[in-house]
Each structure stands twice: as C-alpha cells, then as structure tokens.
Amino acid sequence: MPVGKRAWLYVSRNKKRSVLLFLLLTALMTISLLGLALHAASKDAGKLLRSSIGGYFTIQSAADSDEKVDERLLQQVKTLDNISRYNGVDTYYLYTEGLQLMPGSNHGTGLVGEFMPKLIGCTDSSLHERFVAVSFQLKEGRHIQADDQGKAVISEAVAGRNHLSLGDTIHGSAVNGVRGWPPHAWGAEQDFEIVGIYTTVRNEPVSPSTPECDLQENIIFTDIAAAKAFYQSKFPDRDPEEYEYGSGIMLFLEDPAHMEETVAALKTQPYADWDGLILSENNAAYTQAAGPIQQIEVISLLLLLVILVLSVAILALILLLWTRERTTEAGILISMGLSPRSVMKQIILENDMVGAPAFLAAALLSRGISGILERWLGGLLQNICLADYIGLPQLAVVLLCAAAVIAVSVLLACIPFLRQKPREILTTLS
Fold first, then answer.
1. β-strand 136-141 against 189-200: which pairing, if any?
2. Structural contact between residues 106 and 207, judged by C-beta atoms closer than 8 angstroms
3. This prediction's pTM
4. For the chain, what percent of residues have pLDDT higher than 70?
5. Short-list 60, 54, 109, 104, CA closest to 83
6. Distance set, CA 81 to CA 47, 75, 253, 258 (Å)
C-alpha cells in the first residue's frame, strides 16, 4: 500500500487525534503569524513615528569663512542617503512703503525700518524652523512651495492691520540692511500675491528698542525664486549656481535616529571645505521620544521570541509523545516488510495532511483577529493595518517552521526503531 494512502487512512480513522492536532496547529500558527506581523508593524510604526517627529540639521557659513552655502552645494547634499526633504533659506529686508507693520522702535520716526518687514525666502515655508517648532502656525491658505514665483505668506496681525486677505498683492523691493542704506539702493521691485496667513503661537521676547523689522509678526515668507531675483539684481554677473543661501539650508531626515551617521557621512564628501561651514543638529524632539519608541520595538521583539519558542516547544513535545506511543504500531508495520524509513515518512505525511488545512485556517483566522488586535492596541501602531503584515514573508516563515518542527520531532521519536533491525523490534514486542 502506498505511503500516502496509509497516511490518509490513519488520519481519517483517528478523527479525535486529527482534530486535536488540527486545532493545536491552527492556534499555534495563528499566534505565530500575529506575532510576526506585530513585530514587523511595530518596527514600521516606530520608523513612521520617528519620521513624523522629525529631525534636521542646518548648514551655514561660518562668520570668518569664505566658504558659501550656495546652490551647487544644495544640489549635492540633498541627494545624500537619509535626506528626505530640504529647505533653502535666505533673508532680506523688504521696503514696502504704505504697508502698515506692527509698531516697533522705528514706528513714526520716518526711518527706513518703519516700512521694512523681514523677508524670508524659502524653498518650503512649512519646513522653516519657526513652523517646525510650532512658533508659527498656518491659519489660512497654503505654504510657500518650491515652484512658486511671487507668492507670500504674511502674519494675521499685519493682514488685519492692512485689511489684506488671500489673493491680495503687496509690493516692495529688497534692501541689504535696516540702517545706513537708502531703501532703493538695490533690489528689483516685485509684487507678491498673498497665498497664506499665519498666526503666532509662541510670543518672542521684545524690548522697547526692538525695531519693527525684527518683530515676529512683521516677518513675510516668500518663495526662493523671489529671493534669487533679488540676489541676481545685486550680482547680475554671477552664475545662478553661485546663488548663496544667506541663512543656510535645512536638511530633514527620513529617520532621525541616524542623525549622527548622516552628518558624519556628509563630512566625508568633497562638496566643500567643511571647516568653513557650521553644521547644527536639531534632534531634540526625537531624543525625547526615543525611549518610548525603542520600548515598543523591544517589547514586540521579546513577545515574538516568546511566542515562537513556546509554539515550537509545545508542538515538538506533543508530536514526540504521540509518535512514541506508536512504537508498537511501527514494529508491526516493519515486521510486515515495511522499512523503518517508510514508516517515518508515513507519520510525517500524516501530520502534514493535518497541518496543511490548519495552515490555511491560521492564515484566514490571523487576518480576522488582526483587526481586533489593532483596536486593542489603539494608536500604538500609527494607524498601520496589521493585516497587511500577514503576507508571503510571514506565511513562509510559519509554514517552514511548522514543517521543520514536524519533521524533526517525528525523526527524534523514530530514532529507536530506525536504529533497530526488524528482529530486534519483534523481540522487544514479544
């Protein structure tokens, strides 16, 4: 009789044992699949959380250095591994006669500073440190984007003082300082369409000597194209790649956990004389949250290891006991002319016949239970769908582990009669 037929007859005739084995395998494989999925999801959740927390560093020119943070440098460093976003920043003062600013020390004096808000050109205003630190918050409209031209984001206070709203236009020309320069000394005149209005969340300390141009409510954010136009009007003969980001560039990381490695790798690149540049890391938010994130990942790993070890131990123990109970049966089959290897193959095949539907049931059951587990864990998984992590990698691991445990357990249990000759087995039985 073929091995497959003998195995099927045993499984179908011993229904209670087959059902028990089916339930045991289903439970253990379901728990294992959920453990693997939870571990993988928690790692990705940690990465998402780190990314949402953010981390960045800035590159600026040292005060006593001729090394510049220019367009060429930006194009090179933004391609570095672990860099997700960047923001080039330049600062000017904008002469805007007629625009009423929030009063400072220059108010009513007739000095240039009375009409001069600080103009910050950005690649992306949402990535400016004031918005990243939530000192400012966008109230209406949108942020400045990389492809904008002639756009502006102004404060709620200035908008209200001048009866301005989204879509209105302000006009001005750049100057290179607050005092000592006539307002039209350089800088082409430009019109700026208001596309966003921000409100101040954290008030900065001011003194009676603080000029209007340095008040936080008087800051105007504009696009980097406008800043470059001002720059070109000052240096018409310079190559556009020589454009200098006067306030530096901000480089944001995909994973702030690797801040030190990223900065170290950057300093090995021959982009510039790094001794002439200042690299400032801002990773405080991640540092504060690093502990809980790491705890989640460690706990999920320990839980996975416990689940896998217990599952393997329970399954192996039961299979060993059940297989050794069949020593008499194995001796009879061997005495009938079957080889010990054939008997062992039969036992393995029996377990596989039960294990196959148990594996399918575990795959379906684990996906159903994953939804319940998500709700129980709440927001710890960062809204990650746990069922998405019960895929081919997890299924393959569980299937291979189950098959290996079955094969090894049966082999260990069958060693006594694999080593004995038929005559010795019959003598033992008698």
1. antiparallel
2. no
3. 0.64
4. 84
5. 54
6. 16, 13, 9, 10
